[in-house]
Amino acid sequence: MVGAFLAPSVSMAEQESMQARMDRLERIIQGQGLTSLLTQVDQLQREIQRLNGTNEELSHKIDQMQQRQREQYLDLDQRITELQQQPAATQPPVRNDSASMVNDSIDSELVDSELQPPPADQMDGAIDTLAPVAVESGEAAYQAALQDLRGGRYQEALTALGAFPQNYPNSSYLPNVYYWQGEAHYVVREFDKAIVAFDKVLSSYPDSNKVSDALLKRGFSEFETGDTTKAQATLNQVIQQYPDTSAARLARVRLDRIQQTP
Question: Where are the TPR repeats (predicted)?
Fold first, then answer.
């Protein structure tokens, strides 16, 4: 009877010991799982930091490339403008048909006088009459505005370009001034103002060599405002009116990009 009474007690003790061991093993397993999870989290955080650093480096390189492209484009535009101004300064005035016969008749009389230098008093007068023309052209102000634009000082450039039409209303640089206003607004993401500036080139200076580029960049600006339909129409207009130009090529590239955008 004593043996029968003690047997259940021994069995219960063994069960309690086994339960304790199982609880301890469960805690160990849980601890190992938590450690593994923490290790994975730490690895993911390090990977995110590495990717963030790579992203910042790529963004910096892209900014540098865009800055170099803007500088090269501005420099090219300045060179083209200077070349265009030189023929205008050296080319003799164009004569209309009604006056050509009269001018031909007096050309021989002018040859001898043109070979002789004018008197000093006439030279002073000539200098006085030419000086305002140079001032009215606004070339120095235009070049200074381009320097601000090239240097990334966009607000300064916009201020100078905005004041130019009032200061030099008869300048031959006005088409370029309005075009670069649009470019500056585009860079600072003022797309509505960029469209207004590009439209000024198109409506007021249809014979300017900036018309194709102004039409192209108006299409770019319309796309940035979210008006995809109008942007596509403008870019197709560039391709139709200026088919063999770099503007048409860029318009095709942007149209492909728009069509691929979901």
Answer: 175-208
**Which tokens is 153 given?**
């000082």
Distance CA 122, CA 55 (A): 68
CA distances from 192 to 87, 122, 212 (A): 36, 52, 19
Query: pLDDT tens per residue, the chain (262 residues)?
Result: 555 555 555 566 677 777 787 777 777 776 666 677 767 777 787 788 778 777 777 876 786 676 666 666 666 666 665 555 554 444 444 333 333 333 333 233 333 333 333 343 433 443 333 334 445 678 999 999 999 999 999 999 999 999 999 999 989 999 999 999 999 999 999 999 999 999 999 999 999 999 999 999 999 999 999 999 999 999 999 999 999 899 999 999 999 988 887 6
Domain edges within the chain: 16-82
Residues in Cβ contact with 194 at an 8 Å cutoff, skipping those fewer than 6 apart? 181, 182, 183, 185, 186, 217, 218, 221
Residues 6+ positions from 88 with CB-CB distance below 8 Å: 172
